[in-house]
Amino acid sequence: MADQTYLSWPFFERRHRGYAADLEAWCQAHADELHAEGADVDADCRHLVRLLGQADFLRATVPSNYGGLNSPVDVRTLCLSRQILAYHSGLADFVFAMQGLGTGAISLFGAEAIKQAYLPKVAAGEMIAGFALSEKEAGSDVAAMTTSARRVEGGWIINGEKTWISNGTIADLLTVFARSGEAPGARGISAFAFPTATRGFSITERIDVIAPHPLATIRFDECFVPDDHLLGEAGQGFKVAMATLDMLRSTVGAAALGFARRATDEALGRATSRELFGAPLSDLQLTQAALADMALGNDSSALLIYRAAWAKDQGQPRITREAAMAKLHATDTAQLTIDKAVQLFGGAGVVRGNMVERLYREIRALRIYEGASEVQKVVIARAAIAEAQGGKA
């Protein structure tokens, strides 16, 4: 079992410790299902959504007024969920995360009728959510978006293409961002709750990546969405996206921490059981140095992650700087930690199916999605400059 001592830190309340214990016990009881890597990743994801929904853990992703666990959504609970799930299964973490990311903007900006229509189904695992922001020429540069939304009587017509969309092959509901033209650049984008059963929606390409996920390119051809599916105000889509990512970005760091803690435990098991030159591998000073780096990185990441989550839950309006630090440090450090674990396993570490080999594939995408590491550095630097100049970070 992964280290649990962090749960005694003052960031957490009794309810968090109880939730973490329940989720950990559930993961161990469902270990066979969580560890399976089937040939059909779509089916695996649907199964995991149903499992997590039936166990009530998806309730953490939506507000309590709509079948959720807390109001507002508790970021510490999200981080604990992702850390624990990632420790046991990268795919289970993925499906949990997408339920939160796919509906975060609806929870924050949706009309009451839209919240009532969709959020309870997401919390129950009856509806799968996704987040459609990226395009081929508009990833980190959101202002380059070309997918369009034009106003018509009673709603909007959406046209265009999105790519790198997680859950793109299986989502029932997407948060879609499109250029509505109120102003140039990022100021002319709007956000919409979009049911994928809408006429004109299609999946044009499945994208295969090193850690299989239901990733796709999707297309909108004259897709109509009603007025009440607009999230926030027209032209405020960039604000909607940033507020959603601001709330959830630290959870990416938490997932990375879960991977890193699992890699550390696998490395410790290997180092203490494997003999080299007549003594345990753990007796070598270079091995001890690697293990020390892993432990240090894990606790450093945890402190940054749960500082950011605690600040958000205490009502701090924006945690952009804190969340950027948490994601950057945790994802980059987890990559190093997992690499050290693979090295300690030697040849066995690169055999497909070995846990550290799985982790090596799973961690890489976290340094890219929801803001690449380079973007996080820009965010942190700008905050530091603004503070030095007497402005607001």
TrEMBL record:
<dbReference type="GO" id="GO:0003995">
    <property type="term" value="F:acyl-CoA dehydrogenase activity"/>
</dbReference>
<feature type="domain" description="Acyl-CoA dehydrogenase/oxidase C-terminal">
    <location>
        <begin position="235"/>
        <end position="384"/>
    </location>
</feature>
<dbReference type="Pfam" id="PF02771">
    <property type="entry name" value="Acyl-CoA_dh_N"/>
</dbReference>
<keyword id="KW-0285">Flavoprotein</keyword>
<dbReference type="InterPro" id="IPR009075">
    <property type="entry name" value="AcylCo_DH/oxidase_C"/>
</dbReference>
<dbReference type="Pfam" id="PF02770">
    <property type="entry name" value="Acyl-CoA_dh_M"/>
</dbReference>
<dbReference type="InterPro" id="IPR046373">
    <property type="entry name" value="Acyl-CoA_Oxase/DH_mid-dom_sf"/>
</dbReference>
<dbReference type="Pfam" id="PF00441">
    <property type="entry name" value="Acyl-CoA_dh_1"/>
</dbReference>
<dbReference type="InterPro" id="IPR006091">
    <property type="entry name" value="Acyl-CoA_Oxase/DH_mid-dom"/>
</dbReference>
<dbReference type="GO" id="GO:0050660">
    <property type="term" value="F:flavin adenine dinucleotide binding"/>
</dbReference>
<dbReference type="InterPro" id="IPR036250">
    <property type="entry name" value="AcylCo_DH-like_C"/>
</dbReference>
<keyword id="KW-0560">Oxidoreductase</keyword>
<dbReference type="InterPro" id="IPR006089">
    <property type="entry name" value="Acyl-CoA_DH_CS"/>
</dbReference>
<feature type="domain" description="Acyl-CoA dehydrogenase/oxidase N-terminal">
    <location>
        <begin position="27"/>
        <end position="126"/>
    </location>
</feature>
<comment type="similarity">
    <text>Belongs to the acyl-CoA dehydrogenase family.</text>
</comment>
<protein>
    <submittedName>
        <fullName>Acyl-CoA dehydrogenase domain protein</fullName>
    </submittedName>
</protein>
<dbReference type="InterPro" id="IPR037069">
    <property type="entry name" value="AcylCoA_DH/ox_N_sf"/>
</dbReference>
<feature type="domain" description="Acyl-CoA oxidase/dehydrogenase middle">
    <location>
        <begin position="130"/>
        <end position="222"/>
    </location>
</feature>
<keyword id="KW-0274">FAD</keyword>
<dbReference type="InterPro" id="IPR013786">
    <property type="entry name" value="AcylCoA_DH/ox_N"/>
</dbReference>
<dbReference type="InterPro" id="IPR009100">
    <property type="entry name" value="AcylCoA_DH/oxidase_NM_dom_sf"/>
</dbReference>
